């Protein structure tokens, strides 16, 4: 069983971000109390079993104070059986990490940090409106390691407009020097409802060129491979098997419960999407109503979701499972397209499992959507 907790607050809006968050923290305590109440209301959502992973995401969960974090964790432990070796991750921003907060997180039971570094290059941090400096980005990882939290993931963003690839290479070198066991690397995308989206409309910035993004991706993958990181998902790299168990559970389609504004849940048959509005979320939970939209998944939805997430991973997708999910329609509908992809060298079959080739990884989402059934 897996639990996601969305903490919908940030200090400031990064120019690229379209996640749900608010910079007004006046009702932070009330939202935390509502999330705890939702955990109680949703206790029966998941089938019986130990909670294997707990993930505090956001927003910026490192903005939780000691009382708020402990209150949420105590509620979780009261409502669920948490496995003794459960992976408990907290997303943190460098500017929130110091010796005192790191000790507090560790004492609360956080055993994995996912740090939103994005870049070690000061002008890139300013361009994206990150709240931390390049120096803080570097120092916080060392501080965390010093505090005994070794299971660290850092987020990096690539394809940030730049004259050449030197800054990306320098970002990667810094990450390697720090010796973190996990790196998530995401391509900069310009979403309409963001500052970058509005600048693009006003032509204050240029769109990210596909070719430049592809070159950066190749540099990134090659460099990570040379330094001992395994690409176990298109955007996720681990050394010595330090995979994110929580995110892997999404990709393997295990059931999970998501609580908090904008959180999603999945039980194998349907997905639920909590409302992305803190005030409305608060009001509903105070009336014991879960403010979620429920989407029942058809056989085609289940097949297509499995393709979209599974093909991105090193575990690939099982042909037999595709047939079961699609009620026997996958080969009939997608067989020709699959043949074309195989001949192009983008996909290969190994003992009944479909896997992307290195060339195919450049077009993972397009390949999956071309194989979608209806
Ligand atoms: S990227 Fe993270 S810190 Fe920045 S606005 Fe989005 S959720 Fe907040």
From TrEMBL:
Gene Ontology molecular-function annotations: coproporphyrinogen dehydrogenase activity
Pfam families in UniProt: HemN_C, Radical_SAM
PROSITE patterns (alphabetical): RADICAL_SAM
Cellular compartments annotated: Cytoplasm
Domain Radical SAM core: 1-230
Primary subcellular site in the record, as a coarse category: cytoplasm
Keyword Heme: yes
Superkingdom, taxonomy of origin: Bacteria
Family that this chain belongs to: Belongs to the anaerobic coproporphyrinogen-III oxidase family. HemW subfamily.
Entry function: Probably acts as a heme chaperone, transferring heme to an unknown acceptor. Binds one molecule of heme per monomer, possibly covalently. Binds 1 [4Fe-4S] cluster. The cluster is coordinated with 3 cysteines and an exchangeable S-adenosyl-L-methionine.
Protein name: Heme chaperone HemW
Classification of source organism: Bacteria, Pseudomonadati, Bacteroidota, Cytophagia, Cytophagales
